[in-house]
């Protein structure tokens, strides 16, 4: 599936949704680094794509980059609120609280 999606890069369907789909597929296979790269591309194409910010944060957590995840989710929350996407904003707020919670 990833190969089919990547084959569309540079074509008429290339855009934030394609890059998000690639990132999502890569994350599902355990390739957090590849997912983060694709999701950064998605947010670079469309900085208002709150779902891409949310998934980028998850990929960065999987890579151990908690500061990067915090930055992605913080940006994602701002984007989601500006777009009226309250559910995505709430989800990322929960992720941030869990990330910031000191280990027991």
Architecture overview:
- With 104 residues, this protein is an all-alpha fold.
- The protein has one domain: Serine Threonine Protein Phosphatase 5, Tetratricopeptide repeat (Alpha Horseshoe), CATH 1.25.40.
- Helix content is 75%, strand content 0%.
- The chain has helices spanning 2-6, 16-28, 32-45, 50-62, 66-83, 86-100.
- α2 (16-28) packs antiparallel against α3 (32-45).
- The protein is globular and about 45 Å long.
- The N and C termini lie far apart (40 Å).
- The mean pLDDT is 96.
Give me a quick take on this structure:
Helices cover 75% and strands 0% of the residues. The chain is an all-alpha fold and 104 residues long.
What are the defining features of this structure?
single chain, 104 residues, mainly alpha, Serine Threonine Protein Phosphatase 5, Tetratricopeptide repeat, 6 helices, 0% strand
